[in-house]
Please model this.
Amino acid sequence: MADIKAIAMPKWGLEMSEGTLAKWHVAEGEAITKGQVIMDVETEKIANEVEADLEGVLRKQVAGEGDVIAVGGLLGVVAPEDADDAAIEDFVANFKSIAVGRVEARKKEDKAEAAEASAPAKKAAQADVKASPRAKKLAKELGVDIAEVPTSGKRISDRDVQAYFDEQQSGGGEPAKEKGRVRASPRAKKLAKELGIDIADVTGSGRGGRISEDDVKAHAESGGGDAAPAAVNEDVRTTPAVRKLAKEHNIDLATVQGTGKGGRITKEDVERAASGASAAPVVPGENPYQLIELNNMRKTIARRLTEAKSSIPHIYLTVDVELDRLLARRAKVNAGADAKASVNDFIIRAAALALKQVPECNVQWHDDGIHMFQHADISMAVALDGGLITPIVRAADTKSIHEIAAETKDLATRARSGKLSLDEIQGGTFSISNMGMLGIRNFDAVINPPQAAILAVGSGEERIVARNGAPAVATVMTVTMSCDHRAIDGALGARFLEAFKDLLEEPLALVI
Model:
């Protein structure tokens, strides 16, 4: 089996835990070469093309389009054309993903530790054995009773827990359906639910009778589901289970509006179409409400911002900026220009130049210390349906206003269509959130870690100001800077806002 290799779900960034296989670009039986685009994978915020890092023949597509797979999970199998089918299936059955298995390099260490103690000694001392904190944590995550885990040393290690779990999963423990408990993969359970199949009726082909997703599909194709599968508009982006559901309800998928990533049609979309509803399902009661399920992007936003507000000591600094000279300068700059610069483009440029003047604010907070950067990589907030994304204008301090204008337009367009790459949304040094176009006068924004600051920009509006002791009318914009007080104190933030205000109110430097 040395020539049989896995295509696994890649990991892009520390926050990624799973991805959606959006599309296969190669079919089973086709040869692939290194560097060839073989599939599209979607995360919470982006869609990326995945290039092959190996060569061979795609012998099996383990994951289907639309499947959500954990990082390290098996997507496909590459092997020589003459490799035995049974060997391929055995490879799939025994594959251990990064999320569950341990690296092979640690197996030798496990065996060496196991050889130090005999089996009788381990059994006799089991009652007195203690467990390491990592072992307890892993046991809880895997649902293992740590009291049942044998140990090879003085206390139960995380390797002992993993080895015991692997043994149970591979058939070394109780049979799949013993005592009424069905052993099936999460994907198999999910598919069975979608197809209306009682998972207990499915025959498992894995070790110990474990039921896989393929077992559920085979059961459905043999007539074990609510209805036989049927082809429904194969050009529509969705999953086989959703196609089957649409066929059951006699619905043409071409007429269904998809609410999934990139317009993908979900099971809920078909169910709404079947019921004649156009929105989220209504939960009855004294005051009926619509239940809107959280998408991956909203879950990620909720987790990260909760962490930010609970762990970062925010302080807020607010100033008013007069914009009349900037608006006049913008009109001259845009006259005859191909890429029209918005007020937000000027704000990005002003923030970047202000960060060059006050580099102590162009920082990220990390456990090893404060990282101060040479260039200002400005993250700009872009609102999407169901969430928010922050593409980055790299080295904005080195770019002209027209270059920034062209780049922000391109980034915003691709952000709304889900076409940004990972490096275009990760690693900014400073953020700007502009809600002025929505009529918001002022607000406080939440810092996006590990960045140490974010600038909240309100709308520009005519206000009465004092000038030379007399009232006058000026176009004024309120901005509030949220600072991580661990890295940026009030005086330092005030220096940045002073430089930022001066650049916008005397904007000639922004167009030079």
Summary: The radius of gyration is 29 Å.
